[in-house]
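Pasting as-is:
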Amino acid sequence: MTTNKLKIILTGATGMVGEGVLHECLNSDQVESVLVVNRKPCGYTHPKLKEILHNDFYNLNPIKEQLQGYNTCLFCLGTTSVGKNEEEFTKVSYTLTMHFAETVVNNNMVFEYISGAGTDSTEKGKIMWARVKGKTENDLMKLPFKKVYNLRPGMLLPTKGMKNTLSYYKYLGLLTRIALFLFPGIGSKLSQLGQTMIKLAVEVPADLTHIEIKDIKRLSK
């Protein structure tokens, strides 16, 4: 177990997943500081929180120096594949992710990537998004980080009261609760995902690389 508290870079804080993970980080005694890198303000203020606004995630040179000195990166930035062809989805999900990782990489950092249940590690399957996610996972693990974790959540029950999930929670929160009650293997609470990401960064279990839904639930306890 690491003796130092976590100094975290977090992306995607204006989305449902990133906001939920940020919430857990700000409320964790194991987290010393969180640097949020966003295109627009996340809407939060906190003694632990610092924010960098940067429009072009394909060119991080202007902020590269500000991304140094951290021991954890929680990469929660993502997009849906709906309406995108493979080239478009690859640019957003693979190229952008790899560029960010290559910019912050150091051998003292744990990098955690939000992938998805059903991701194709072979990169050869018929489902486009699963192939792209699989390639992203595989190539991230080739970088010289202390450890890379690929988290594969399924359906997520949002944390109630979050700014970016109010409309989702209002219309789909009950349906999500029912679905997870009837079929618990299909997903978890978003709070459990955030807690698991913190725990992985603190304990760095050597035997895990791909964190499935069952692992998220087990590690969050």
